[in-house]
């Protein structure tokens, strides 16, 4: 089995269940912008993709209106949402195991940098990582761009790293950056293992315990 020097995690739906804060941010934004609320079944689609993309997708609005919506969304996220994220069961144990075994750990997320750091800090996880990279203010960075920044921070080659994520954004970003991909089915992006298999992952995890077992044998 291949040994990895660096393990890179997506945040939303992979490290943390951030759904409560994101859903509340959407409802907060809808009220401030006087949008017709989306139905509850649509809310999971906001977990993972860039915020600007989500608002343009789900409301009939132009770019300027979407940017104003993002301001409200981020206001809620930075003031309250960062406190509403919860680690998935077993995640602290996985991170402790990986650090003890000498792996370099990184976070690559499409969440904004400052909100990413605040969210991890509130969950007592920020200090677990050697590199934490989020999206820029203009949301111009792709997932691959962010993964590449983490690789540079960690000083590792793409073939030495693996990205763990719960969505097509993660899988595509991993492929574009030349790193292996592990898909998790417990998050929000992938609906089932068949969707993950389409991206040729090196492993599929249904629970965090599956990741613990996988890396325990690496």
TrEMBL record:
One of its GO terms (cellular component) is cytosol. GO terms for molecular function: protein tyrosine kinase activity. InterPro entries: HAD-like_hydrolase_sf, HAD-like_sf, HAD_2, HAD_sf, PGP-like_dom2. SUPFAM superfamilies: HAD-like. PANTHER family: 5'-NUCLEOTIDASE, PHOSPHOGLYCOLATE PHOSPHATASE. This is Phosphoglycolate phosphatase. It comes from Eubacterium maltosivorans.
